[in-house]
Amino acid sequence: MPAPIRLRELIRTIRTARTQAEEREMIQKECAAIRSSFREEDNTYRCRNVAKLLYMHMLGYPAHFGQLECLKLIASQKFTDKRIGYLGAMLLLDERQDVHLLMTNCIKNDLNHSTQYVQGLALCTLGCMGSSEMCRDLAGEVEKLLKTSNSYLRKKAALCAVHVIRKVPELMEMFLPATKNLLNEKNHGVLHTSVVLLTEMCERSPDMLSHFRKLVPQLVRILKNLIMSGYSPEHDVSGISDPFLQVRILRLLRILGRNDDDSSEAMNDILAQVATNTETSKNVGNAILYETVLTIMDIKSESGLRVLAINILGRFLLNNDKNIRYVALTSLLKTVQTDHNAVQRHRSTIVDCLKDLDVSIKRRAMELSFALVNGNNIRGMMKELLYFLDSCEPEFKADCASGIFLAAEKYAPSKRWHIDTIMRVLTTAGSYVRDDAVPNLIQLITNSMEMHAYTVQKLYKAILGDYSQQPLVQVASWCMGEYGDLLISDQCEEEEPVQVTEEEVLDILESVLISNMSASVTRGYALTAIMKLSTRFTCTVNRIKKVVSIYGSSIDVELQQRAVEYNALFKKYDHMRSALLERMPVMEKVTTNGPTEIVQTNGETEPAVLETKPPPSGLQPTSQANDLLDLLGGNDITPVIPTAPTSKPASAGGELLDLLGDLNLTASPASVAAPQISQPPFLLDGLSSQPLFNDIAAGIPSITAYSKNGLKIDFTFERSNTNPSVTVITIQASNSTELDMTDFVFQAAVPKTFQLQLLSPSSSSIPAFNTGTITQVIKVLNPQKQQLRMRIKLTYNHKGSAMQDLAEVNNFPPQSWQ
């Protein structure tokens, strides 16, 4: 068989290939020749063939069929064969393949070989791909070589020991005696690998960390000799003596000094020397300075040393190298919480980085700028960040807008400045703000009573002819509806007044309604605003009625529902319109574990949507109560019809009734009206303004409907004077445990032959130790005088847990239903 071509000729041939297909053809032809040679057990050219296979492997072609040939080369007595064999093993084998275990005996023999270069090959291979089984078998030989006087073998044995410790951490103590004299070695290669070994042991074992802390003075001495020594051509890199060893020692010092006062004190002086004596004109010096800064920040260093470290990072920000600037910004971001004042000195340099062309640097600079904002620099920093928001790429706008909102809320010097800043963000990047930006700004404006006229004029001018920023349009629509009378009255003293008529305000809002850029939510804001203006404007009410009636047939269901309700308000309850659409009270924002809520100061909780859309009264309690419809089984269950909480009498008189229900106002404005229902007959039918219910009848005893886990529910009974079929049940909930029960909700369901109405409870929290009760009224209409049955559902929070229970009440006294 002719001699195979040499590796150099193969490389030259492959490089002449013009296409990928031509290259694959050459590779396949050569692989076939190599396989034939392997089958013939030709030892003469095995080394050459494996070398060619390794080159093909590096090009990405399969070379697994050469694995056993690598083992044969390792077993050879020739050094050249062993070298290629071990190289092939490191490239083609790993611990997932059982073939590698066949190498264990060969490596063990070579570790005891008389030639240091053969021993070095075995150490390199074991340190590269040795499995945990191989490491356990050969750890003894590695430990012996770690104690040898040959520096060539010691440095390779130290690196091999690192791999052994990573694979089998319990063998760490085996290498502890051998580490005693490693730092006394003069050879820099041995010193370097020894420091790597000590670092690995300290990171993996707290006991080793405590043991090696006594080596801090010795490490400090080695580092001092490195920075004070003269020129050494063997170790010099750009004028700095062995920077690789310096970096490794600094990393080990960082680990040893962390959370240890004595070790930190011992290394303070040398860290200061490294920080002041290292040349910064070359990248090598910057690498050492960066490691020094990380060490200073991680140990318990002196305050002056920390300031020095931050000043080094500040100098890095002025470097032309983008990588160095990025590293500096990242490091400053980590230290800004602990050394805020020192980082503040470099604020102007950090802000300049916002103008960098590199997006990574720009993002880090933005994050660091927000971390530097405080009450003293809020105006200047916001000016720079708003300028950045104007010019930055779209991917930055959402994070930048969110950061500005948070900073303004925390450090705003005045409400006017706060409102102006948020409006500027909405004008610049309204499409990128978070969903809660609109309700938050509305809440802020509502609470700034002296700023209403100023704000509505600013918003009116901001959206003239431009509806692209939807959140801004939503806030402007809400404010024009709420404070439209201030907009046309020229009451703004702080802003140059704008002459606006009622027609112009309605023109803007109608334009929002028909604009293609307006989202469904925005149209809802605009329609509600137009409806509010019917009580604030005097000359345009007919136009408002016409606009509202048009949208009663809108294909947008939400818009249609609003319009129908508003039409009903005009036609049936026009005398209540001014009360329903009166100005929103001052709101207080409360942060909970869930979404942000807006709580009114009169104690009634309103949802976070801040529009004045009059929803059907009691809609949510109905949906909750109807969850109980299937509790009694069958189809004989009637839905619960709750009554909305009694609200404060409106200025126009009367109660706020369901706009879409067939409810008639029967009482005069001076009295509290009771709703009446014609179909079907209900429990309030025929009730007059006389006292509605008897006192508790002496013959109707109270009952305990529920008593469990410290919660007790008692029922007391009343009968109606005018309608004997109506029973009024008053529940009293008490709590005998040592902690309050919160978020208490009582729900009930009755068979279909009954009608049931739940009124609002007196509270949602039951005090502990029976110190107070919650009361709630249930009205039951029982026209057929059947025995009363009820299924109840209780939910509440107690001791940090959500509790829920179901119970059936069948022991109603006969007097309550007969």
From TrEMBL:
<keyword id="KW-0963">Cytoplasm</keyword>
<keyword id="KW-0813">Transport</keyword>
<dbReference type="InterPro" id="IPR013041">
    <property type="entry name" value="Clathrin_app_Ig-like_sf"/>
</dbReference>
<dbReference type="InterPro" id="IPR002553">
    <property type="entry name" value="Clathrin/coatomer_adapt-like_N"/>
</dbReference>
<dbReference type="InterPro" id="IPR008152">
    <property type="entry name" value="Clathrin_a/b/g-adaptin_app_Ig"/>
</dbReference>
<dbReference type="InterPro" id="IPR016024">
    <property type="entry name" value="ARM-type_fold"/>
</dbReference>
<dbReference type="Pfam" id="PF01602">
    <property type="entry name" value="Adaptin_N"/>
</dbReference>
<dbReference type="InterPro" id="IPR011989">
    <property type="entry name" value="ARM-like"/>
</dbReference>
<dbReference type="GO" id="GO:0006886">
    <property type="term" value="P:intracellular protein transport"/>
</dbReference>
<keyword id="KW-0333">Golgi apparatus</keyword>
<comment type="similarity">
    <text>Belongs to the adaptor complexes large subunit family.</text>
</comment>
<dbReference type="InterPro" id="IPR050840">
    <property type="entry name" value="Adaptor_Complx_Large_Subunit"/>
</dbReference>
<dbReference type="GO" id="GO:0031267">
    <property type="term" value="F:small GTPase binding"/>
</dbReference>
<dbReference type="GO" id="GO:0043323">
    <property type="term" value="P:positive regulation of natural killer cell degranulation"/>
</dbReference>
<dbReference type="GO" id="GO:0090160">
    <property type="term" value="P:Golgi to lysosome transport"/>
</dbReference>
<dbReference type="InterPro" id="IPR008153">
    <property type="entry name" value="GAE_dom"/>
</dbReference>
<feature type="region of interest" description="Disordered">
    <location>
        <begin position="597"/>
        <end position="619"/>
    </location>
</feature>
<dbReference type="GO" id="GO:0005905">
    <property type="term" value="C:clathrin-coated pit"/>
</dbReference>
<dbReference type="GO" id="GO:0048471">
    <property type="term" value="C:perinuclear region of cytoplasm"/>
</dbReference>
<dbReference type="GO" id="GO:0005829">
    <property type="term" value="C:cytosol"/>
</dbReference>
<dbReference type="GO" id="GO:0030742">
    <property type="term" value="F:GTP-dependent protein binding"/>
</dbReference>
<feature type="domain" description="GAE">
    <location>
        <begin position="698"/>
        <end position="813"/>
    </location>
</feature>
<dbReference type="Pfam" id="PF02883">
    <property type="entry name" value="Alpha_adaptinC2"/>
</dbReference>
<keyword id="KW-0968">Cytoplasmic vesicle</keyword>
<keyword id="KW-0168">Coated pit</keyword>
<dbReference type="GO" id="GO:0030121">
    <property type="term" value="C:AP-1 adaptor complex"/>
</dbReference>
<dbReference type="InterPro" id="IPR017107">
    <property type="entry name" value="AP1_complex_gsu"/>
</dbReference>
<dbReference type="GO" id="GO:0055037">
    <property type="term" value="C:recycling endosome"/>
</dbReference>
<protein>
    <recommendedName>
        <fullName>AP-1 complex subunit gamma</fullName>
    </recommendedName>
</protein>
<comment type="function">
    <text>Subunit of clathrin-associated adaptor protein complex 1 that plays a role in protein sorting in the late-Golgi/trans-Golgi network (TGN) and/or endosomes. The AP complexes mediate both the recruitment of clathrin to membranes and the recognition of sorting signals within the cytosolic tails of transmembrane cargo molecules.</text>
</comment>
<dbReference type="GO" id="GO:0019894">
    <property type="term" value="F:kinesin binding"/>
</dbReference>
<keyword id="KW-0472">Membrane</keyword>
<keyword id="KW-0653">Protein transport</keyword>
<dbReference type="GO" id="GO:0035646">
    <property type="term" value="P:endosome to melanosome transport"/>
</dbReference>
